[in-house]
Write a structure and sequence with these properties.
The chain is mainly α. It has two helices and no strands. Helix 1 runs antiparallel to helix 2. The model has no long low-confidence stretch (mean pLDDT 89).
Length: 70
């Protein structure tokens, strides 16, 4: 990476904070059967957040490796 170490460490902190927020925002499954629209919205929201988490975790791992933290 061409970024200075301090910038990579700052980005790593940002990623950790974002991951914490995204994980807290993951919706719990509906407690009742609900209707198909609600179920579809739940799944779409969960998949979107899970995709964002996956991307951030991959970037986090790359940064940790570049900083020798793994």
């Amino acid at each position: 990476m061409n970024q200075p170490e301090e910038e990579r460490r700052a980005r790593l902190r940002e990623i950790d904070e974002s991951l914490e927020r995204l994980r807290a925002d993951l919706p719990d499954p509906p407690s009742d059967a609900g209707d198909m629209v609600d179920s579809g919205q739940y799944l779409a929201q969960r998949e979107e957040l899970a995709g964002q988490i996956e991307l951030l975790e991959a970037e986090r791992e790359r940064l940790r490796e570049s900083l020798g933290l793994t």
